Amino acid sequence: MAISKAEVVKVAHLARLAIPEDRLEGYTHTISDILDLVAQMNAVNTDDVLPLLNPLDATQLLRADEVTETNLRELYQSVAPRVEDGLYLVPKVIE
What is the spatial distance between Cα 60 and Cα 32, in angstroms, rounded to a whole number? Predict the structure, then answer.
């Protein structure tokens, strides 16, 4: 898929990018090459291909979902300067 210099300039303007005139030809060619590669990748038939979960064909070891720490909320709030309804009260910083 070829892209024109005018399209590159338009996209650069929308993205607020400054492209020097002497490099415009190179950018146009590079972007066209990228779009050609994307078109080739889209043309590949992947109907019978399963998603790859791990390139090493390994399984994910999961630990049991168990609580390993005790709830220390009451202890922490007992030493807090101001607490109300289980919430820490802090000074207002925006006026």
Answer: 40
CB atoms within 10 A of CB 15: 8
Sequence ranges of the domains in the chain: 5-43
Architecture of the structural domain at 5-43 = Orthogonal Bundle (1.10)
R_g of the chain, CA atoms, integer Å: 29
Token couple for 78: 């007992």
pTM of the model: 0.52
CA distance linking residue 83 with residue 86, whole number of Å? 6
Q: Which residues pair with 83 in a beta bridge?
A: 88
**Mean pLDDT score of the chain:** 91
